Structures are given as C-alpha cells and as structure tokens.
Amino acid sequence: MKNIKYMLILIMLLFIPTFVSAFTKMEASTQSPIVNDHVYVRVNLDYGADKEIKEMHFRVSYDTSALELTDQPMWTQSRSSNGEYTLEDGAVVVDKTGASANWKSGAVIQIKLKVLKPGQTVIRVTLEGDAYYSDGNIIPHENSSSITLFAKEPNSNVQLRSLIVEGYRLNPVFSAYKREYKLDVPANEEYINVIIERGDPTQVVDGDGIRKLNYGLNYVRVNVKAQSGDTDTYTLLINRLDNRTGDTTLKEISVTNSDLVYEEGKTEYTTTVSRSVDNVILSARTTDPNATLVGTGRKQLEIGDNYFVLKVSSSNGLETEYKINIIRSAEEYQQAAKSSKLQNLKVNGIVFDLSKEQYKFYYSVYNEVNELDITTVTESKTAKVEITGNESLKEGTNRIEIKVKENDDTETLYTLIVYKNPNAEKLKDIANADYYSNSIYETSTPSIIPKVVIDKINANNVTLHYNVVNMYGGLLYQVSLKNNLVGDINPEIKKVEGNGVKYESNIPADNQIVLYLDEKFKDGSDVKLTSQDEEGHSKVITEGLRVIDGYVTFTSNGDKYYVFTASSPVTRKGFLGKYAEYIAGGFIIVFLAFVVISINKSKKKKEPVQKEPLY
User: Fold this and answer.
1) How much is the mean pLDDT over the chain?
2) Which of 240, 318, 380, 479 can pair with 314 through a Cys bridge, CB separation 3.0 to 4.6 Å?
3) Domains of the chain
C-alpha cells in the first residue's frame, strides 16, 4: 500500500508544470549616498540565461521629496528598440511590447537620481500586468521589489589629523586648529617632504609631498577640501637660509691627457694634446659650491685649435667666462725609448685620462654589449699590449686587464672594471616613458623622480634601474626601484661624514642597491653594513657583505643612513669547525690543570741531597 502511495505522488509530479525561477530586482550604485550627490539605480531582470523576454510592464517609483530625476533614463542592453518609457511625478513607467527587440536577463534600464535630503527612502519597482517569454509562455514572477537608501549629509571636516615636514619640527607644534607654522632649514636643503594625515578619509588634499625651496622665505600651502565642498588651507612659512655669494672664481680646471695647470686669477688657457687624442673631458670646480658652472663635459677635437668657454654664474647673478684653447697636434708626441706605459687609451670611442698616473678605470655598458672596442697607443714603439677579460661580458661586474710589457721585462697593468646592466629598456626621457617593461635610466646628476613616473611603475609592476655614473659612464651606484614606492622619490645616494664609510639616502625599503665604495675596502673582503635612522638608532644589516671589484650589493631597509666598516670574513663551519672553540677551550683547561698539579707536586719534593765536593 505504501509503495502504491509513492507511485501516485510520482505520477502527479510528472504532470505538474515546471516554473522557471524568475525575479526582478533593484540595484543602486550606493546605499549610503551623500546629499546633493547622485545615485544610479538599475532594474535587473533574472529570468534565466537561456530565456528572452518579449513583453513586460513595470513602474519604478521614488519619493520626490528625497530624490529628483535629473537625466533621461538610459537603456543598458542597446541604444534603441528596447521599449518605451513615460515619466510621471515620482515614477518611471516602462512598457516593453513585442514590437521591440527581446530583452535578455540582466540590467535593462538605468535611472539617475539626485539626493535631496538626508534620511531613509525607498525606491520600488512594481510589475504591472502579465509578462511573456519570447516563446509566448507567461513568466511567473513576484509583483514588486525595492531597495532602501540611507542618505546622509556630506562631511564638512577640513581639519588635518597631522602635518609634518620630514626631519624638522614645526613652530608652533602642530594642532588641527592652527593654520600657520614657521620653519628654518639650512641653505643646502633644496627640497622638503611634507607629510599629512587626513582628518577624514573623504578629504581631498593637495600641496603635500616633495616641495622645492627657493632661497629665503617660501610659502608652502596645503589645501584641504571636505566632502561638503568646504575648503581650508594650512600655510608653512619655510625660510631657507641664504649663504650665496658673488664669487665666480674656479679652484680647478683640468683637461684629460694634457698638461694644463690652473692658475688663480687667470681666465684664458692653451694646452696641446697628441694626435691620437680626438676627445677629452674638460672639467672644473667652482670656489663657491652654490655657483653655477656651464661648459664642462666631453669635447670632440679636430686637428688644430679647439676653443671652449666655461661660464661661471655666482649665486647672486654675477658671471665670469674662462676661455680654453685645446690644440690637437697633427703628430703623435715623441715616443719614449723605453716605457711600459700607455700614451692613449680609448674605449668605445671615449678617451680615458692617463695624465694623472691613473691605472684603474670604471665603465658601464648595456646588456646587449658583449665586448668593448679597446684601442691603445703605447709610449714606446717596442712595448707590447695584452688584453684579457674582454669577451663574453657577464651581467654585473667584469674585470678587463690591459698589460703593457716592454722588452726589458718591465710591465704596467691597467684595469677596467665594467658593469654590465640588466636586460631592460633604455630610457632617454624618464618623465615621458610608458614603463610597460623593466627600464634603465642613466644620469650623472640625480634628481627627484616625480609621482607620475612612480605611479606608472607601480601600475605595471616593473622595475626602474636608476644609474648614476661618472664622466666615463662608470657606475657609481644603481638603485633598482620596484617596492614600497609612494609619491615623489629622491634616488640620490650621497656620501656624508661619519664613522666608517657613511652614505645618506631616502630609498624606500626592499629595493636593491649596487654601490661603488670608492676603493675604501680591499677587493674580495667582507664589510659590515649598519643602518641608522634619523634619530641615530642603529641596526646591523649584515656582517659579511662581500666587496666585488669595488662594489657591494644590498637591499635597502628604509633607514636614512648606511655605514660600511671593516669586518672579519664570514665562514661556514663544518662539524669540527662548529665546535672548534669549545674543543680548544677544553684543551686549554686540561693544560692549565696539568700545570697546577705539576707545580703542587714540585713543592712537595724534598730538597736534593748535596754531595760533598771532590777535591
């Protein structure tokens, strides 16, 4: 009997029509809109992915005291043939008939409403009449759906929670209610970093970040705009001390591969170089560090006279010109009878300065370069040159040795340390690149990397290798920027006074740095690396950082200073090595115990018997 009952139920189910789960719902861009802002409302149909709707009629109603229709409703499935709508007071009435294109499940119409007052309000969609699928079947559905909005007044807070200038104390101490502060900075402080914390997350703030300072009084304004549109301004009166002078003198002028000697008060110079020297580096240093010097750099030479002008502009506007005539001889200089030295060294078209008895040079190349074009001229006709290491250059540092050997067995060794860059796109303009891939930018004068560049690096998750080089293109340091990058970035690493070899930087944490230590440590030795924050707190990063061809490679930790000092080599200990100190200590203890016992025994011995002398 029980089995017959179950069979009857099954037969009945086979004849009951199957209804598709179908409903109409409301969606809003936000349920917590702000007064005077807009909220976007969509009618969303979910009537089966494989079904199309031929006919439907519904009404979207709202409270006109709380909401206002500001634009015409917008069809979302296509721009035409969606049906018709009429606008009533507080309602949008939609009529979809078979004359228009069928609807698919999903959003069909969007309505833009302005929020007029705070509080709770309901937007409701009500179905009117029957709805049909494209196959003519009636659509079972609920009659209405709604969404509730909780509107609120916009936040009018224009007060910051904090305002600081990195590395300095404001006067007076910051208070959210005080709008003006004063600060003195030294003359060499060209940039400051203004850091703020918003009093409300909806505030829009401008004027913070890296700011450039002129000499004298600078007005730095931090503008705060509240969600309500209210605005206020915090003003920083920053006085950059002015130590500028009218000094336009130089303390040094030099021309590579020449015998030019600077003389105080002299403004015109003439010097001669050998025929094989087709380019030189003209360099100079101003007496006043704040003066501007123009005209230095690498200079191409023609046979005969080559005139160049150095212009020095003082920090207060005075100018002096220094005129240099470099004569490139039509002949090679007289060669020495016997010499194991070079008269000229040229690498990839760049002439290196040999006039200062320099035997080690630094150079860098891009990743696609596997060999350098090296040409040499010896002082002696009988000297021979042997070059090793100039093949299959690897990424990182490479050592190329140029050995000059005279037939009297005297020899001189010249060394090129060549840094081969990672494989990355070469940039000429750091500001306007796309940063779709890893990039390299090379400069001899580091400067602030603007936020717009940092944003591109972050968005594309790429690395910018920022290289600072010397006059030969030799790498002084490389900062590989990828992690923890926010706002403007100052990539400069500068040497400062302090115990050990000390450098100052503002590099964020977790970015790789390759740094040339200026021959301060023996090649192959290990150095101790310690970092310091601005308050002088130190932490040891490593005691075993290996110096390779004058360079060290480490990862920044965000501190302001890095200090390098001599360190004992770090070694790995095997089983015996691991316990060697304990074993040695045990031997020492046993030895000392043996000595003490021996002394005690000797004290207990009788005096030796004195034999009578033999006469």
Assistant:
1) 84
2) 318
3) 20-151 (2.60.40.680), 162-240 (2.60.40), 250-328 (2.60.40), 342-420 (2.60.40)
